[in-house]
Design goal:
Its EC number is 3.4.24.-. With about 170 residues, the chain is mostly helical. The chain has one domain (about 5-145). The chain has seven helices and three strands; from the N terminus they run αβββαααααα. The protein has helices at about 5, 40-60, 65-80, 85-90, 100-115, 120-135, 150-165, and strands at about 10, 20, 25-30. The chain has a three-stranded mixed β-sheet with strand order 1-3-2. β2 and β3 form a beta hairpin.
Length: about 170
């Protein structure tokens, strides 16, 4: 169960960080001085909730295993809306073939470098080694939610998924 007053904290943050997940307290930190729009906050909350989900589901070793961190960052970039076409156009980064995967990879590397003191080569290697498996892990959504309608469909599917296997 998530409690707003226990699991979310709004704080002023350094640099251009928008949020974070504190595994020690199971708390999501929202950087109130770096979030200026509701849509941005929605993406940050979704991104950090994916980290919280991974923390509960996969027992991620955030501090000692850079591959664990890389996997969660790949999943969060892939599923949170960080790499939507509109966000990429706003960043003046867009392409046609394979652009979503490129964005997810780049944002995962960037996130690792923001939270761990590792070389860029180490971050790139970790992301590359786990990319395919983690990019294709779409839990808890079952699909990449590209729009609000997609997110609602994914949530409906999540609510009904036991119905499909109950009679097997």
């Amino acid at each position: 169960t998530v409690f707003n007053d226990r699991h979310f904290s709004c704080e002023n943050c350094d640099g251009c960080v928008s949020g974070g997940f504190d595994a020690a307290t199971s708390q999501i930190v929202l950087c109130q001085n770096n979030i200026r729009q509701q849509s941005h906050m929605n993406r940050v909350v979704t991104h950090e909730l994916i980290h919280a989900f991974d923390h509960c589901r996969a027992h991620v070793d955030w501090f000692k295993n850079v591959k664990h961190l890389a996997c969660s960052e790949i999943r969060a970039a892939n599923l949170s809306g960080d790499c939507t076409l509109m966000n990429e156009i706003a960043r003046f980064k867009f392409g046609l073939k394979g652009h979503h995967q490129t964005c997810v990879r780049d944002r995962a590397i960037r996130s690792i470098l923001a939270v761990r003191k590792v070389s860029k080569e180490t971050a790139e290697k970790a992301v590359d080694e786990v990319f395919d498996a983690c990019f294709n892990d779409l839990e808890p959504f079952g699909r990449i939610p590209h729009s609000k309608a997609d997110a609602k469909r994914a949530y409906r599917d999540f609510q009904n998924r036991d119905r499909y296997t109950a009679n097997l």
